[in-house]
Amino acid sequence: MPSDSTVPAAAPNPLERFVAVIPAGGVGTRLWPLSRAAAPKFLHDLTGSGSTLIRATYDRLKPLAQGRFLVVTGRAHEAAVCRQIPELAAEDLVLESEPKDSGAAIGLAAAILYRRDPETIMGSFAADQVISPDSVFQAAVLEAVHTAASGGGRGKIVTIGIEPTHPSTGFGYIREGSALEVEGAPSARSVAEFVEKPSLEVAEKYLASGEYLWNAGMFVAPVALMLEHLAANQPELHAGLMEIADAWDTPERDEVTARVWPTLPKIAIDYAVAEPAAAAGDVAVVPGAFRWDDVGDFAAIGRLNSAREDEAVTVIGEGARVFADSASGVVVSDTKRVIALIGIEDVVIVDTPDALLVTTKEHAQKVKGAVDALKASGDTDVL
Amino acid sequence: MPSDSTVPAAAPNPLERFVAVIPAGGVGTRLWPLSRAAAPKFLHDLTGSGSTLIRATYDRLKPLAQGRFLVVTGRAHEAAVCRQIPELAAEDLVLESEPKDSGAAIGLAAAILYRRDPETIMGSFAADQVISPDSVFQAAVLEAVHTAASGGGRGKIVTIGIEPTHPSTGFGYIREGSALEVEGAPSARSVAEFVEKPSLEVAEKYLASGEYLWNAGMFVAPVALMLEHLAANQPELHAGLMEIADAWDTPERDEVTARVWPTLPKIAIDYAVAEPAAAAGDVAVVPGAFRWDDVGDFAAIGRLNSAREDEAVTVIGEGARVFADSASGVVVSDTKRVIALIGIEDVVIVDTPDALLVTTKEHAQKVKGAVDALKASGDTDVL
After folding, report:
1. Interface probe with B: pick from A315, A332, A338, A360, most Cβ of B within 10 Å
2. Reduced 3-state DSSP string for B255-289
3. What is the 8-class DSSP label of residue B2?
4. Helices (DSSP H) in B94-220: which residue ranges?
């Protein structure tokens, strides 16, 4: 972690208005049975670092946000999140009674922050991503904060786009436009367009062109500008969120939330804000040259634990006792059982107290189908 | 099970002198982690029949032996064996304080039975083999009993040789000699020789010749003849066993056994008795046309559960909840966990509360090596 001396202290510094929002939702079905409703992905240490993903996210943002955080998560995860981040005060936590997609979750964070201070610049960073090195990430966020504060009073919605390392068909892309002239953000550019997950052929063209970045869903923006676009594109969602936000720091919070939240439409923040804002010319991008992974499946876990790549079997989990003979792959263990692998290549084994997954790296993406089938068969106790 | 009417009642019937000896030893290391020191192979139902192997062995012999049994097992397994065969009286059980190989185990059974009745014909049948159909096995044992009682007062040591179905390199073979003329045993022949486990090339020749049978370690013999050969070939072992047998049904049993048993040499019954007896012309063979398997590894378990071969994954274990997608192989479950297999072929999974094995049918024979490695690493709690 860089020292705080990387954070410039000159006033007026837009970083003083910065609040880090951490949406911690999503079960991570493709990481079943490790990740599941009761113990979602962000509560696991998937990189062998000793930190859960949410704790690592918090630590990565701390030098920029200092104590200014808002974590949005499900009510069921309150205790686990507080154990992971004991620094959080009660007002730093937004608990959803039921999941409502990222539009409502991030929109509510924007609305609450707006009511607390309309000058706030929020930065939204999912709790379940892996990033390194932290210093490169922090430099990109810092540029994004400066860019978000630029352009007169209005500012920009600034995505952080990841420089692609391979022609992924699993991510959306951002096409960069012209360079912006922002003080403190030399690499900021306009966004020409957001594009959906491409075919492999298209992804290869994107990669070759050098004009495209991965859309990692990270953005920094003045909350006022977020809410302006939300009001324009999703007036019903905006009205409901403002009603909740008005009541949030009052005794009426629970009553109003219980009444309004269940009625809100489910929509991703990309559709509710980012794409229409880009069309309106209000979105910028700062490229991030850091390593980034959304840990989409167990093959990713194998990649992310490359520190042990001298061993053929990557073992995740403190208690695991793995014995391998002519075997390779990934073992994720949530138990203290002895696991013996003999003569099996590229295997993926996930061992938890009540469920066991055995697959291959090649088939790791199919785990979601297994979970759907278990759901259909009524074996929901392990989901 | 055939009715008792298959057992001839004409006197003097040598079957009335028949006692079934069931050596129940051997951990079955290649079936780890299902089979282990605390729960050896014979205490498992490996065929999905609803019976453990030792119970099935008892039931298969019951029409011939009636209540005349002697089970030789380790002291640690007394309670489990009695739960499996509640019919056993205290005098039907021989408990070893430490394992001493088959020479001492079967030799002690012979000596005890000899002291109780020197005219006894013993039949020794390991507790951990799978045989079907029972009726064909019983007919072969019956022929073996008649053969064992033949040849004047001396009798024969009669092995039951299995008609080979493939050129196995995992078993010893018996070369048949000339036909014997034994009343009640039309298929009995002399034994030309016992041969050790052959190479594949040699095994193929054996199979093609039609003169060879698998040595399954099953034999029927007058106890007096057994002891005669034991005395000639292993005088020290013989003397020790006779000393224990003299004290067995007296108050001195524990004292004498504790003193003598630990001093006895470890030797297989094949070397101590069968092979020298064959060289002396005292061994006959009755071919068995039944299906036989010593369940040597998990691939065997897959074969033995072919009743479910319409399904790609054979599941052994009552509590198992297996979900398979593009997968094939064998799952042996000793837990109630959900097991999801995705995109993995010919896999062998053995799931127990404290140890998990993942291998392939092809590598199933290597399990013993894993157990040795675990032993070397000190992970003996799961062995």
Report:
1. A338
2. HHHHHHHHHCCCCCHHHHHHHHHHHCCCEEEEEEC
3. -
4. 101-116, 134-148, 200-209
The answer to whether the bond into B33 is cis (omega within 30° of 0) is yes
Structural domains present in chain A:
4-293 (3.90.550.10), 301-382 (no CATH)
Contact B363 A343 (CB under 8 A): yes
* Neighbouring C-alpha atoms within 13 Å toward the C-beta of A70: 24
Closest CA to A237 of A188, A212, A273, A278: A273
What lies within 8 Å, CB to CB, of B228 at 6+ separation is none
Tokens standing for residue B161 = 């040789």
Of chain B, the end-to-end C-alpha distance in Å amounts to: 36
Residue of A nearest to B349 (CA): A358
Contact A356 B339 (CB under 8 A): yes
3-state class (DSSP) for residue A201: helix
Nearest to A342 by CA among B315, B364, B371, B295: B364
pLDDT in tens, A250-272: 999 999 999 999 999 999 999 99
- Show the low-confidence residues of chain A (pLDDT under 50): 1-3, 5, 8-11, 307
Query: Which pLDDT score, from 0 to 100, does residue B203 have?
Result: 96
The B-side interface with A (CB below 8 A) comprises 32-33, 321, 323, 325-326, 337-344, 347, 349, 351, 353-360, 362-363, 366-367, 369-370, 373-374, 377, 379, 382
Q: Whole-number mean pLDDT of chain B?
A: 91
Question: Tokens 């007062």 appear where?
Answer: B153
Q: Cα–Cα distances in Å, from B35 out to A195, B28, B101, B207, B362? A: 56, 6, 18, 31, 19
Token pair listed for A264: 């809100």
> Do the Cβ atoms of A94 and A72 come closer than 8 Å?
yes
For residue A318 the two structure tokens come to 């403190």
∠B220-B125-B299 over CA atoms, to 5°? 135
Q: What is the pLDDT of residues B120-156, one digit of tens each?
A: 999 999 999 999 999 999 999 999 999 999 977 789 9
Q: How many CA atoms lie within 13 A of B254 on its CB side?
A: 2
SS3 category, A98: coil
Q: Give the gyration radius of chain A's Cα atoms.
A: 21
* Minimum-distance CB partner of A382 among B338, B349, B377: B338
Residue entry with tokens 């062109």? A209
Beta bridge partners of A333: A351
Contact A366 B357 (CB under 8 A): no
Q: How far is CA B366 from CA B56, B172, B331, B361, in A?
A: 27, 20, 17, 10
Q: What is the DSSP letter of B291?
A: E
Cα of B243 vs its chain's centroid, Å? 26
Is the four-CA dihedral B201, B203, B204, B205 of positive or negative sign?
A: positive
| Burial class of residue A297 (count of CB atoms within 10 Å of its CB; 0-12, 13-18, 19+) | buried
* 3-state secondary structure at position B119: coil
In whole angstroms, give the CA distance from residue A298 to residue A362: 10
Distance CA A260, CA A237 (A): 10
Q: Cα–Cα distance between A339 and B32 in angstroms, integer?
A: 11
